[in-house]
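User: Good morning. I'm curious how 5-S-methyl-5-thio-alpha-D-ribofuranose would be positioned relative to this chain. Could you predict the structure with it bound?
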Amino acid sequence: MYLRLRGALAAAASISALSAPVVAAGLAGAPAPFDKGDVKIALVGFISGGDFFEAYQSGAQAQAKALGVDLRIFPGKQDPALERDQIEQAINLGAKAIVIDHGQPESLKDVAQKALDAGVKVVAFDVNLDNPKIPQVEQSDHLLARLALEQAVKDNGDTFKAGYVYVAGFAPLDRRDEVWTEFRKAHPGVEEVARFGAVNSTTAATVADQAKAALRAHPEITVVFAPYDEFARGVKLALNELGLNDKVKVYSADVSTADIREITEAGSPWVATVATNPAVVGAASIRAAALLAAGQDPGHSIVVEPVLLTQKSLRDSGVATVEELSAKVPAFGKSNAAKAGWISE
Ligand code: SR1
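Assistant: Good morning! Here's the predicted structure, ligand included:
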């Protein structure tokens, strides 16, 4: 009972924190409406939870603060209907711009158009809304997958049996999948013998169960391509449980401080990842939204380039956190995407 009450109080506190009004003062030297302040921007997500999305949001919050923007964050909880509803709420609360972060295009296109019709600017991160008025933020997913797979060939040669973690319908995963398909055509010695995947509120745990079944059924697997850090964590859990850490190598996307720990720990099978700093991507998304709200053009395609992080390079450099990585690798810690003189970081 006490626990339930405590949970309810915590939930109430977090809801009010998410929506607490911030009446911000104007930004000196900025174009309208930022010069007068009190500008609301909404960030509507689809996937709630996980290191990537938490860091993305914190980067968005930091950039919003630097702009004096009242950022309202709506967690979509993997629910397409809720995400639509939250976009409507953002329109109604008077947001000048909305960042739509992931989601299912078919359930978002019309409500995104509704926002545009109401004069609200829209930016999409990793969801293709197929609309020339909506700039698209992405992490150069083709390059990301290519770098991971090139590293797999470097480590394993180009003849191996692979497991592949994939869920169709997510723009970044679909783009990475295009590269995986091309890669297998170019390397006929690489055989995909098992495919699995899930995106839900417990992605890593679900993928761990699936990976255990796949690895038991296919003991010939020596490489797993898991291009989302929650997938890689799941596969690593399965390998640990099955005692296969020495036999199978995992290649992924994304990085967080927790991921760095998992990659660099003794005996880890997670040997490389290719990643942007998600906080940098979140900040670029807010800058793009702010530029649009000020009547300026951020460009249609806003790309933050990823970097390859091998287990060896992370161990050799002694980097233990994303902050240390940002300081050490400038291409990881900063992006010039969607910048303007009046926007400080
Ligand atoms: C389910 S989509 C997950 C991906 O979205 C972001 O692009 C991250 O890179 C993550 O891998």
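Residues 52, 126, 139, 170, 172-173, 199, 228, 253-254 surround 5-S-methyl-5-thio-alpha-D-ribofuranose (CB under 6 Å). The chain is about 45% helix and 20% strand.
Let me know if you'd like a different ligand tried.
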